[in-house]
Amino acid sequence: MQQKLCSRGSGSFLLERNGQACGALPDSVTSCELPFRCPRCGEQQRFRSLASLRAHLEYRHSYRSPDVVSGDFSITGSLPARRGQHGAARPPHVRSLSDSRDSGYLHSYGAVRRLNVSSSPSPPAQSSYCGRETAAASAAVRRRLAGILRAADGTMQRRLAKVSTELARTDTELLCERAHSQHLAQERQQVAERERSLSRQVDVAVMVIAALREQLNASESELERREREVLTIQRFLEAAARQETSGKVRIQRFIENLLGRIALAERLVEYYQAQGERHKVQQHPLVEGRLWLDFRSVLFFLLYVSFLRSAFRPKQSNEEPRISRT
C-alpha cells in the first residue's frame, strides 16, 4: 500500500514559496489514510510519498532538531519514543523504509554534531568556523538523504511497476479462468439439458418398444391361432375330399350296378315283348293288369336311372385337378 501511494505521488508534487508541499491532500482524503507523517508536526501533517515529506522537512524544519538527529522518530505514523524507551525496539509493522535505511546516517550526523558541540572552543572566532562546518555537514547530510530518498523512490517505483505487471497478469489470468469457468458452466448446463432430453427420449423409446413388443406378441398369437385354424380347415378339407372320393366311388359302383340291372331289365322287357307277340295267350284280366303295372314301374325306373346317369356323369378332365386340389 505504501509503494502504491508513493508511486502515485512521487512525481506529482510542486513546492510552494511558504515551504509546504503541493502534494498535500485533497479534502476528500483524510490525513489518517496517508502512510507518512512529519516527525515534528505529528498527525497534523501527513504525506502520500517520501518526496513530499522530504520537501516539507527541507522548508519547514531543520535537520539539527534533537528528535530528527537522535533517530527516535518514525515517518509512518508512530510518535517519538520516550526517554526511557530508547533501547526498546518497535514492532515490525511500525518500522518504515526510512527508519531502516536512514537511521545510520542520522546517527552519524548526530554524533558529528555532538562532537562538534563538545569540542567547540569558547572564543567567537571558532564559533563561526564551527557554524560553517555544521552547515556544510548538514548540506552533505541533506544531499545524502536526498540521494537515499531518490534511490528509495526508484526502487519503490520499480517494485510497484513489477507488482502492477504481476497484478495485471493475475487479473488477466483470473478473467480468463472466470470466462473458462463460465464456459464450462454453460457446457455443463447444456450437457445436463441434453442428458435430460435424451433420458426423456429413451423413456419414450422404451415405452414405444414395449408397446410394439406387446403388439408383436399379440400378432404372433393371432398368427398361431390363424395357422391352427388353417390346419384345422385343411384337415377338414382333406377329410371331406377323402369322403367325397369314397362317396363318388360308391355312387359310381352303385350306378354301374344299377345300369347293369337296367340293361338286364331292358333285355327282359324285349324278351317278354317278343314272347308276347308270338304267343298271344289269353290271360286272365288280373294277370294283364299286374303285367301293366310292372311295365309302368319298369318305365319309371328306367327314367329315374337315365336321370341319375345324366346327374352322375363323369366330369371333364379340366375339372379333375380342381377336385384334387380341394
Automatic annotation (TrEMBL):
<protein>
    <submittedName>
        <fullName>Zinc finger protein 365</fullName>
    </submittedName>
</protein>
<keyword id="KW-0175">Coiled coil</keyword>
<dbReference type="InterPro" id="IPR052283">
    <property type="entry name" value="GenomicStab_NeuMorph_Reg"/>
</dbReference>
<dbReference type="GO" id="GO:0110026">
    <property type="term" value="P:regulation of DNA strand resection involved in replication fork processing"/>
</dbReference>
<dbReference type="GO" id="GO:0000723">
    <property type="term" value="P:telomere maintenance"/>
</dbReference>
<dbReference type="Pfam" id="PF23165">
    <property type="entry name" value="zf-C2H2_FBX41"/>
</dbReference>
<dbReference type="GO" id="GO:0010975">
    <property type="term" value="P:regulation of neuron projection development"/>
</dbReference>
<feature type="region of interest" description="Disordered">
    <location>
        <begin position="79"/>
        <end position="102"/>
    </location>
</feature>
<feature type="domain" description="FBX41/ZN365 C2H2-type zinc finger">
    <location>
        <begin position="34"/>
        <end position="63"/>
    </location>
</feature>
<dbReference type="InterPro" id="IPR057038">
    <property type="entry name" value="FBX41/ZN365_Znf-C2H2"/>
</dbReference>
<dbReference type="GO" id="GO:0010569">
    <property type="term" value="P:regulation of double-strand break repair via homologous recombination"/>
</dbReference>
<keyword id="KW-0597">Phosphoprotein</keyword>
